[in-house]
TrEMBL record:
It catalyses: Endonucleolytic cleavage of RNA, removing 5'-extranucleotides from tRNA precursor. The keyword Hydrolase applies. Keywords: Endonuclease, Hydrolase, Nuclease, RNA-binding, tRNA processing. This is Ribonuclease P protein component. Belongs to the RnpA family. Transmembrane segments: none annotated. Its EC number is 3.1.26.5. The keyword Transmembrane does not apply. The gene is rnpA. RNaseP catalyzes the removal of the 5'-leader sequence from pre-tRNA to produce the mature 5'-terminus. It can also cleave other RNA substrates such as 4.5S RNA. The protein component plays an auxiliary but essential role in vivo by binding to the 5'-leader sequence and broadening the substrate specificity of the ribozyme. Consists of a catalytic RNA component (M1 or rnpB) and a protein subunit. It is an enzyme of class 3 (hydrolase). InterPro entries: Ribosomal_Su5_D2-typ_SF, Ribsml_uS5_D2-typ_fold_subgr, RNase_P, RNase_P_CS.
């Protein structure tokens, strides 16, 4: 994913954590905040509780792939995706459907089907 589409600075993460809407399902927590930029910016927050480094990296690579294939459907928001501990055992398709479910809940107000 290109750098312009990622949240990288700690201040950006803090701003989203403080002033965002939270959306949940049993597998993910998603924080969404308008950003005033004409592109989405996406960050991942994966705790050490999720697993060892190779498990977290594999999960992050899969999530980046899912988001990269579908980011063109949204604009003007900062998103932080926080997976739960048991998501390291999921297949790619299960991750895609679960993340799609919570993101569709988040963007229901905008009438966007995020993951197709």
């Amino acid at each position: 994913m290109e750098k312009q589409f990622t949240l990288r600075k700690n201040e950006d993460f803090k701003r989203v954590y403080k002033k965002s809407k939270h959306y949940y399902n049993r597998d993910f927590t998603v924080l969404v905040k308008n950003n005033g930029v004409n592109r989405p910016r996406i960050g991942f927050s994966i705790s050490k509780k999720v697993g060892k480094a190779h498990q977290r990296n594999k999960l992050k690579r899969r999530l980046r792939s899912i988001v990269y294939n579908n980011y063109r459907y949204i604009n003007n928001v900062d998103i932080i995706i926080i997976p739960k501990k048991h998501t390291t055992d999921f297949t790619y398709d299960k991750l895609k459907s679960s993340l799609g479910h919570v993101l569709n809940k988040a963007f229901k107000e905008k009438k966007i089907n995020y993951v197709k």
